Amino acid sequence: QAPLVESGGGLVEPGGSLRLSCAASGFDFSSYGMSWVRQAPGKELEWVSGINSQRTTGYADSVKGRFTISRDNAKNTLYLQMSDLKFEDTAVYFCQTGWSVRVTPDYRGQGTQVTVSS
Fold first, then answer.
1. pLDDT score for 89
2. E strands along 1-118, which residues?
3. Which residues are registered as beta bridge partners of 41?
4. How far is residue 86 from each of residues 43, 60, 96, measured CA to CA in Å?
């Protein structure tokens, strides 16, 4: 099984909500800082949110107040609760180890598509 597998993406109307999940396996999930990153069509990879091993969280300004990152170390799962979704949130969402998009992470999933459309 791949180290990180995302799920929960889909088509949602503006103002709607989705919860993304990322199942981790094969490595010590609890010891890693984890992030959600996204890539919109024709754009570069963008960091969205991160949570470290002490559960300290961070958010990009574009999603602050609308998205909530969390983790369940007992289930080796990372989550991203997304609310008040906007057209500009449309992207492929990836979970990865670490907090940077400038450094190749140890692990990054295959992504899940989120489309916000009316």
1. 98
2. 4-7, 10-12, 18-24, 34-39, 46-51, 57-59, 67-72, 77-82, 91-97, 112-116
3. none
4. 17, 15, 23
